[in-house]
């Protein structure tokens, strides 16, 4: 079983479509109450709002890309983290890469940075950010329908909602049905829309400072690095000036795991020592050989410290085994940080 359905140009990974009940997803959705954590942490939501309004008034060319975490100093805790991750990768017999950014120390840890994996459902976060950016550029914020779709897409990994959000990026000023497109329409038009949507998503990647991940006419089956996913999370934690601050707080509330599909990987840190909050998005998909790609990205808040972390992996015969490996890797990172 996979959590993925991709755009019309997709074809590399083979997967089945598994959907949650949309009625349950919308009716019991997380994110109904925005937590406003950035205000509590003093990150400056009012400043973010001002920046978003300026970005909405200005052209896209005035928006600057965020600096990449790849230029951050190396984390000295790596001497403790690396042996644990090497043991996990060897024991599971899979390829595994992890990146973690310590926001307070300004240091980056990377393990097997060259490894890539298909994005799978973790792409649903930058898709949501792209929809928010388009709303800000038009001088507003997410509509009620858009918010419902983001809840279903990010909070419950609903693929139909994601497909509708992705498609909407190609048609500025038009929008969406609650049930998604019943008629796929002309294949050539569908491919053109997917290309335009990919262009908008890639603009968001550029603004986030993401260096090695790009959409190519589809979503979910494009390759990514762990450090790129950390770069995306870092933008959410530190804030960006090209989306509405309330929308950004809403996204973090949706990423607070309430669905069981999100309680592994980064989600495994819920209830951990001194952990006050966790934001997470997980993804899983099979490639053409039948092997599973298992990914998790998110933010962990421990006491007054913040961490952006991501693990990507592939080569698992069993989906649940891959999820266990991802959870072990995330725990090993934080155990190493504690010393």
From TrEMBL:
Region annotated Disordered, chain positions: 1-30, 176-196
Keywords: Hydrolase
Source taxon at top rank: Bacteria
A GO molecular function held by the record: beta-lactamase activity
Segments of skewed composition (Acidic residues): 180-191
InterPro entries: Beta-lactam/transpept-like, Beta-lactam_class-A
UniProt-recorded name of the protein: Class A beta-lactamase-related serine hydrolase
Alphabetical GO biological process terms: beta-lactam antibiotic catabolic process; response to antibiotic
Organism, as annotated: Rothia santali
